[in-house]
Predict the structure.
Amino acid sequence: MLITLAPGVDPARVRHALVALGIWTRTLVAADGRARLLVEPHSAAVDAADVAALDGVESVAVEPSTHPRIDAQAACVDIAGVALGAGAPPVLLAGPCSVESEERMHRLAGRVAAAGGRFLRGGAYKPRTSPYSFQGHGEAALLWLRNAADAHGLRVVTEATAEHEAALVAAHADLVQIGSRNMHNYALLRAVGVTGKPALLKRGMAATIEEWLSAGEYLLVHGAKAVVFCERGLRGFDATTRNVLDVGAIALLAHVHRQPVVADPSHAAGRRDLILPLARAALAAGASGLIVETHDEPGCALSDGPQALPPAELAALLRTAELPRAVPAPEGANEHRARA
């Protein structure tokens, strides 16, 4: 936002009024002597009309948004009959890091449903840092995940890691996940958008808010029915947690941008003893849900065992965080209930 002052107006006087609104500025003086105030991006969100109404302000110029479709998205979206967003109770999305076997997925699906979860998560395709780590069971795992979810009344969220996987993943998932490493993979964003399914977009480990929102715009431009943002932690300098959960980003997306956003305290902390306090902080900041890793035998997990909650701790998480069961989406929310 660029604020042009009327001739002869003292910039300090207008700055004081802007500070009272929570706005930070820098003063620019043109060659003609006219003063302009450039609003810093970390200022409070204030309507341009309110700024223009201040005494001494001649005009206000606002830069066009680079993500108009995201801006226009409903604050509450419908994901296969589950309301996710403003005004709806927070939703639990839970399951193991990776889909390990058909039997285990049925067992865990039952425990997720019993704990009050609405989505079963699990990776059929696993993008791993090391090429020697478990990479997932692929198409077979998608079938195990879908069948286990259907048997226990759950929806499915799982990740597509490559363009050629997008259609197959969308055929089995209610919510297609874009992982942190792929937030900037625009070819994958296009491919997932073309499927028409809603997408869960994880924030890149060093991505700005604007980059994250623009990645969501890619999905909507190419046909995604809705985008749910997921804060999973930024890369930090301190190794005592795996990542740094950006609670401020959750509050910004939920309360300023009015977007449905969930938190991933499992990947943020990388340690199960911090999942509960981070989950509570995320919900307090405005998160519409939590995506949490759980495993019935964490010591035997093929990936991310140290951060996976045993089922008893998952149930305790819901009780302690006061996370209720979700309710059907309100009329008028974005709808996408058909499965490919």
Summary: The chain has twelve helices and 14 strands. Residues 102-115 form the longest helix (14 residues). The radius of gyration is 22 Å. The chain has two domains: 2-61, 68-320.
